[in-house]
Amino acid sequence: MNYAKQTAPYVRKENSTKRMMVDVLIALLPVVVFAIYQFGWDAVVRLVLSAVIFILGEVVTTFYRTKPHPSVKERKEKFKVRFKTLTINNITAPLVSAIIYALIIPSNLSLYVVAVGALFGILVVKAAFGGLGSNIFNPAAAGRVFIGLSFTSQFAYTGIDAVVGATPLGAAKDALLNIPNLLQNYTVLDLFLGNIPGSMGEISALLIIIGGIYLFARRAADFRVTLSTLVSFSVMMAIAAIAVNGNVVDIVVYQLLAGGLLFGAVFMVTDPVTSPVTKPGRWIYGLLVGSIVAFIRLFGSYPEGVVFAILLANIFVPLIDYYKWSKNRYSVKFIVGYVVALALLGFIVLVGLGGLN
Amino acid sequence: MIEKTRHIPDGKKERKNQPVSHYLEAEYLYFPTTDLRCPAGESCVIDGQYVKVGELIGTRHGGFFDQPIHSTVSGYVVGFEKKVHSSGQTVDCLIVKNDKKYVLHESCVSRTDEEIAALTKEDYIQIIKDSGLSGLGGSGFPTYVKLETKNKIDVIVANGVECEPHLISDYKLILERAHRIIEGLTYAMRAQGAKRGVVAVKKKYPELYEVLENARHSFMDFDIEIKRVGNHYPQGWEIETIKAATGIQVPVGKMPSEYGVCVFNVATLYGFYRAVKRRMPITERFVTISGNGIKTERNFSVRIGTPVRDLIEMCGGYTENDKNKVVICGGPMMGTNLQSDDLIVTKTVTSLIVLDEEPIKTEPCIHCASCVYSCPVDLQPVQIMNAYKERDKDALAVLNVNKCIECGLCSFTCPSKIHLTETMRQAKRFIRK
C-alpha cells in the first residue's frame, strides 16, 4: 500500500463545469426547438454550421496550444499527449456559444456570413485569448457584432416592415409613441409567444423565461446579472415613456419582450467567464448592460443593441473586479452608488428625450 | 454551481448509530514529549519506573507555556521511540508498557463541593495548568493561557457544534457525559467570573439538546442556556459559533475575550470537570476510524497514547485494491494528511480517515464565483489565486489572504475542481517571505 500525498480538503462537491454547460444546453433546448419549428431547415443548417465551426475551432486550437514536453519527440506520442488534454468541456462550452450565436442571427443570413462570424468568435475572441475561461469578451456576441458591422448589407430582413429592422424594435427610436400602433400589428401575446419576425432565438419570450427558470433553479447561472439588467432597462424605459408622455406600462412591456433583450439577459450576460466575480460587481455589470441597451434603443439605430451592450460591459469587468475595491459584501456605499447611477442615467434619458421641455 | 455552499454531506447519520468500542487492551502506550506547539520537552521518569494513571511523567515546553504530560495507564516506562504526531511530524515518544490494571495515582482524589466553592481564579488557573488541559476542539492551545486573560468575560460559550464531516466524538461525548460537561461549564464560569453560559449544539440533533437541557436543570444557580444553532459548515468555527450562540460579532483577527466572550470546546469543559472535581487529567477520548479505504468503520473510546495501528487492525485493516490510500488525521475538510499510519492518539486526535485516492482532474477557472459566494470570511479566492499567479504581494495583502481560515470550502465548491485552499496556503507563505 502506498500513501497518497494530498492537502485538505479531501472531499469535493458533486458538481462540475460540464454539468453547468449541459444545464445551459438544456435550458436552450426549448428555444432551439421553437426556432426549428418556426424556420425549418434554415434554422437547422445555421445551427449545425455554427456548432461545427465552434467545436472544430475550439478542439483544433486547444490541441495545438498544448505543448508536449521536449522529451516527447515522436509524432504519434505528441498526438497522444495533446489528445489527452482534450476534455468534454472542449465540446460543451463551444457548443453553448455556437447555439447562442446561431440564435441571435436572422434565419435567412447567408451561410458564408454565418461561417465568418463563427470563425471570428471562436478563433479571435476565444482561442486567441487562451480558450475556456480566459476570454474577456462573449464569443457569440463578438461574432454577431463582427458580421453585423462588416456585412451590413447582408442583413436584409425579408417579410418585415422596413421600419421594423432586425426585430420590431428598429422602429422604436423615433416612435416610442408609435408603440400602441405597433401593438395593433403584434399584440403583447404575440410578442410573448414568439409570433413575430426576428432573429431565430429571440422571439419567444415564454420559452426564454422557461429556460431561464431552469438555469436559475439549477444554479447554472447567476440571477443577479439578469435581474439587474432587466431592472435597470425597465427603469430607463419607464423614464423614457414619461419623458414622451407615453403609456408607461405599454412601452416597458413592449421593450422588454421585443428584440433580443430577454434572450441576452438570460443566456448571454449570465456567461460566468465574462462576468465579474462578486455579488455587487454582478449587479453593476447588469446595470451597465441594461442601461447601454436602453441607450442604444432610445438614441441609436443599431438593431444589435444587446450584443453591443454586452461587449461594452465586458470591457468594464476587469475594472469592476479590480482588487482595491471589489468586495463581496453589499455595502451602503454600493447601494447608494447603484441607485445614484441609475437615477443619473435616467436623468440623461429624460433630458435626451426632451422630458424637461 | 453558482451559489453559497454551506452544507457538506457529512456521513454522521450512519456513524452516530454505530456503537462505541471501549478499547483498553493496548500493549504499549506512547506519549509525545514534543509537538507542534512545544518544540522541547523532557520526561521526569526513568526506564523501568512504575507509573500509575494520572501520574506526571514529563513536561513539554512551548514558547511561553509548559504542558505537563500524564500517564493514562499504569505500567512500566520502557524507553523512547519515534512516532507520528497528529500534526504529521515525527516526534519522540515516551513508552509505557501497560499492565492493564489501571491503578489510579494517589493524587487523584475528588474535591468536595466545599473545597471547590473556596477556589479562587488563581487556583483554577493552577489546577488547569497542572492538568495539562488544552483546546480539545483541535487547536491544542493550552487552556490556562485563555483563563489568564485580563479582559472581563461575560459569557462562556461551549462549542458542541463539531461541523466537520465524519467526526462524532463531541456528539458521543455530549450524549454520554452531558451532566459533567455542564458541571465543567459551571467551573469555567466560576474561574472567569462569567455570568452566562451558552452551550451551542446543532439544530439537527434534538437528542443532544434534550440531554443537555436535562443536565442543565441540576445547575439552576447558574444562567446556562442550551442554544440550537445552524447545521451548516463552518458553524463550529469560533467566530460563527459566537455569532450564532450569543449574537456578538467578533471581527476576524480579534480575540473573542476582547468582546467579553470565551469559547471552549465541550471536550475541554469535560476536562475542566475532570481537573477540578476529580483532580485527573483527560485520559480517554473518542476516536472514529472511517473512510472507504478501511474495511469496517468503527468508533472507539481509547486511552490517550494508544497507537492507531491497533485500532486499524481491529477495523479489519485496509481495503485491498491497487489504489493509493489517503490517510487523514482529523476531518476531511481541514485534517492533516499523514504519510504513515504510525499515529499516536493524542488529546486532539478526533478521527482517522482512510480514503482511496481518486484522481481529481482540474479544469480551467470559469469565474463562476462559487468560491467567492461560499467563503465564510468574505474573501475572493479566485482573485487571490490570480494575484498569486502574478506573485503580486500588494494585491494579496489588499485581498486579505491572511484572514483565510483554511476551512476548505473554496476547493470543495469549485466546479472546475481547482485546489484553491492550497493556493491560499501558498499565497500566505509567499507574502510572509
Automatic annotation (TrEMBL), chain A:
Pfam families documented for this protein: NQR2_RnfD_RnfE
TM helices/strands, residue ranges: 20-37, 43-64, 85-104, 110-129, 141-160, 196-216, 223-245, 251-270, 282-300, 306-323, 335-356
InterPro entries: NqrB/RnfD, RnfD_bac
Domain of life: Bacteria
Keyword terms of this UniProt record: Flavoprotein, FMN, Membrane, Phosphoprotein, Translocase, Transmembrane, Transmembrane helix, Transport
Keyword Acyltransferase tagged: no
NCBIfam families xref list: rnfD (TIGR01946)
Protein name stated in the entry: RnfABCDGE type electron transport complex subunit D
Gene source species: Paracholeplasma manati
TrEMBL record, chain B:
Limits of the 4Fe-4S ferredoxin-type domain: 356-385, 395-423
Cofactor descriptive note: Binds 2 [4Fe-4S] clusters per subunit.
Predominant location: membrane
Topology with respect to the bilayer: Peripheral membrane protein
Positions bound to [4Fe-4S] cluster 2: 375, 404, 407, 410
Enzyme Commission (EC) number: 7.-.-.-
Alphabetical UniProt keywords: 4Fe-4S, Cell membrane, Electron transport, Iron, Iron-sulfur, Membrane, Metal-binding, Repeat, Translocase, Transport
Pfam families in the record: Complex1_51K, Fer4_10, RnfC_N, SLBB
Role according to the record: Part of a membrane-bound complex that couples electron transfer with translocation of ions across the membrane.
Subunit structure: The complex is composed of six subunits: RnfA, RnfB, RnfC, RnfD, RnfE and RnfG.
Stored HAMAP family: RsxC_RnfC (MF_00461)
PANTHER family on file: ION-TRANSLOCATING OXIDOREDUCTASE COMPLEX SUBUNIT C
Protein family per UniProt: Belongs to the 4Fe4S bacterial-type ferredoxin family. RnfC subfamily.
UniProt-recorded name of the protein: Ion-translocating oxidoreductase complex subunit C
Species of the source: Paracholeplasma manati
